[in-house]
Amino acid sequence: DSGVTQTPKHLITATGQRVTLRCSPRSGDLSVYWYQQSLDQGLQFLIQYYNGEERAKGNILERFSAQQFPDLHSELNLSSLELGDSALYFCASSAFPDRATSGRAEYNEQFFGPGTRLTVL
Amino acid sequence: GQQVMQIPQYQHVQEGEDFTTYCNSSTTLSNIQWYKQRPGGHPVFLIQLVKSGEVKKQKRLTFQFGEAKKNSSLHITATQTTDVGTYFCAGREYGGATNKLIFGTGTLLAVQP
Question: Hey, what's the torsion of the CAs at B70, A29, A59, A42, to 10 degrees?
Fold first, then answer.
């Protein structure tokens, strides 16, 4: 158990719909990351938040958005869903967002949650 | 943009045989991490390499970071059925200011008892 929780575990919805995935980081971790894992695309970084603010952006579609709340939990919103959005969505957390903040030569490892499997029909 | 490729994509071995996966980045990396994902599970951190030419060992696993910091390898000696899973390398671009990781394409290891 990594200490990162994600809900729901499974989500089945229809094309055109909107869903919200939720993530609670490990206790004490300030940074949250979202990843999409599909069979043909591997593990793709979507977005990173640190202490409520967006820190880095990856291959996140405009139909997708995320935020991190004052209690540090994060939500990933997926709208106008398409069949191709079916995938496993992982949230990960780390103590610090980057080297400058941590003051360490090494970056922090990321702890992954169990994931949310999204199926768009 | 930065790309991280792994080979092979899939490997099937008999229990007791050795296994190696290779990771190559299109750009110089600040450091590299390795993760293991069991079937149906989530990625779990294994190790981080930071220095050029660094070699680290964890029991039967040996991790190596290339001199140019653009490639890495993971070698498993005498595989066991518990080694089954997908092994991902994940690199952070040199000079990058964030903790953003670019994951490799992964190598799926199957071990036949």
Answer: 60
Query: Would you say how long chain A is, in residues?
Result: 121
Report the residue of chain B nearest A100, measured CA to CA. Answer: B97
Report pLDDT for B98.
Answer: 63
Spatial contact of A92 and A112, defined as CB atoms under 8 Å apart: yes
- Residue from B30, B32, B36, B42 whose CB has the most chain A CBs within 10 Å, to mutate: B42
DSSP state at residue B54: -
* Range with lowest mean pLDDT among A22-26, B56-60, B101-105: B101-105
Q: Burial code of A45-60, b = ≥16 C-beta within 10 A, e = fewer?
A: bbbbbbeeeebbebeb
Full pLDDT tens readout for chain A, 121 residues: 889 999 999 999 999 999 999 999 999 898 999 999 997 668 999 999 988 999 888 889 999 999 999 999 999 999 999 999 999 999 999 887 555 555 554 556 889 999 999 999 9
**Partners of A22 in the β-ladder:** A7, A75
Q: Determine phi and psi for B68, rounding to 5 degrees.
A: -85, 0
Q: Which residues of B touch A56 (CB under 8 A)?
A: 98-100
Q: Tell me which amino acid residue B16 is.
A: G
